[in-house]
Design a protein that fits this description.
Largest interface: A-B, 30 and 30 residues
Number of strands of chain A: 7
Shape of chain A: globular
Radius of gyration of chain A: 19 Å
Largest sheet of chain A: 7 strands, mixed
Structural class of chain A: alpha/beta
Number of helices of chain A: 9
Oligomer: homodimer
Strand content of chain A: 15-25%
Distance between the termini of chain A: 27 Å
Helix content of chain A: 25-40%
Chain lengths: 278, 278
Amino acid sequence: MYIHGYGERESERLLAQAASVVRLLHGDTRFPPGSRVLEVGCGTGAQTVSLARNSPGAQIVAFDHAIASLARAIERVAAAGLSNVEFLHADLFALPFEAESFDHVFVCFVLEHLTNPIAALQLVKLLLKPGGSVTVFEGDHGSAYFHPDSAIAQRAIACQVELQRRAGGNACIGRQLYPLLVQAGYDAPSVTPRVVYVDATTPDLVDSFTRKTFTWMVAAVREEALAVRIIDAATFDAGIRDLHRAAEPDGVFCYTFFKGVAAKPAHLPQEGSNGRDV
Amino acid sequence: MYIHGYGERESERLLAQAASVVRLLHGDTRFPPGSRVLEVGCGTGAQTVSLARNSPGAQIVAFDHAIASLARAIERVAAAGLSNVEFLHADLFALPFEAESFDHVFVCFVLEHLTNPIAALQLVKLLLKPGGSVTVFEGDHGSAYFHPDSAIAQRAIACQVELQRRAGGNACIGRQLYPLLVQAGYDAPSVTPRVVYVDATTPDLVDSFTRKTFTWMVAAVREEALAVRIIDAATFDAGIRDLHRAAEPDGVFCYTFFKGVAAKPAHLPQEGSNGRDV
């Protein structure tokens, strides 16, 4: 759910998101002591801290291709007093690991940026031991709705979706986790929705999620959206105002993340089967 | 989430819905032994059975203004072997009950049909003892999204929403439960989303919810939508086909219901306050 992965504003937003939604997303994600876990595309480490804290006996290897993000992740994990994470500067499609060298893989807010998420999941599968698991998290901008409803706010959100599409990504990928995991050859995917429901009874979420995560993320594409002329400034700004309107005391905001867990088949599938690696 | 409340097809749909989604919706709705509970607008009794079964010690009074629906509800509750329900043919705005004569009120899929849902909630509040609770359930058609995504399917859904709007209702009312309960003068509303997430791992839900509840409900407005010319037949039919496409093995369907619980203030509010009755 990040755009560039670094930059002061995005970092704040990610941090806000991590603080308020982290339990909903990661509260039930735990890996056993002694297991070796790969975090794909750790970004600024917003999720790495929860991952390492929830699985103190696991050895986590986290990598990202963006050096500035990685530096921030290293700082953040150190500041949290966690010592079970190794960091690596690397690219997903050129990793230095041997096949079948991880027990579990954790992929959070990464697939949405990839032109071929199935290829990424297949590559991850090569790194997993047979029977190992992949855990995937994604948001879905098509799951955003709010009160008061606003067609103009939906148009502003659609700009973010369209720009991410033009960059090769998919901001509405959350709903697709099940077919993606099946098509990548995993066994028995289990997908669960995680709804962030926000009304005035949770003022911390109104601020940290409705305003400082979702609305800021949409607002961040303003200049780019205007530059490619998919919206005019007045409409975009009115849309952002309407998103802030949903953060008023009688407003409501809903957004759904999806968690998918699936296993690498315990026995290597035969060539030509659905589970064939790339 | 019903349209007419009776008719063979709607009954089947409601029954399917009750069978597959009932635990998600009502599993945590229980009223204590000895309490007197009013069910507003019980329709064909699809929810009444769960309500009576989950609270065997409570005395339930269920009413509806549609005699055919009420007859079906009486049959259904008798067939389930439940004896803690009294039925009444009555209209919400002309009920024969004294003020403050119920401990709890249960309102499921009713507010979506009303021109003034706040007035209905205020009326219900008069019937509640101070400190009593109202429990409200509503769906929200704006929460429906699916894979593969389809703008044409969303247009077909929008016909159902538009026709319900022209009939004075609101098919997207679920997200509004919190402000509605506040505006009706209830204390401390607590609203929780209930997501029906459907993929091929739950074939019973694919059939009973995606196909036989949601898609049938949208398909049921075809003639009316064509008659008032808000869509053409080819587009509508293509939209329904795309909804069925989401029920294929690689499809996904999501829909969110909302449950709201709130208390009638224990002490009557002073005139002029937010809690003033109508």
